[in-house]
Write a structure and sequence with these properties.
The chain is mostly helical. 38% of the residues lie in helices and 7% in strands. The chain binds a DNA duplex (13 and 13 nucleotides) through helix 2, helix 3 and strand 2.
Amino acid sequence: MEANFFERVYTLVKQIPEGKVTSYGAIAKALGTAKSARMVGWAMNASHTIDSVPAHRVVNRKGLLTGKHHFDGTTLMQQLLENEGVKVVNNQIVDFDKHFWQPKLEI
DNA sequence: AAGGTGACCGGCC
DNA sequence: TGGCCGGCCACCT
């Protein structure tokens, strides 16, 4: 199996198709650490150094771009999502449930 | 080895 | 939805 918890998160996040988004909790649950969605966020923090992980497709359960602060600018994450067809208004994804992608189905 | 930290979640009001 | 609180686990120093 893969070495770190991080790599598992990366592997899963990388599988997120364009125009789709998911939540930390969903990823955490898919990995088996449902009660520790914080770990997913922590993994994303490390993903910042990897740049192969579409972290902009990962938001919290409310559809808020909580992690946009960790991106380069302030609207980078939002623009990336909009570029893929995901509407974002005021740091929040519109029709979040429609764009929601369930990692459990893929894992 | 121990403590601190974190891009969260769920429950309650 | 929004604010507050507790829990939870892996990584870092």
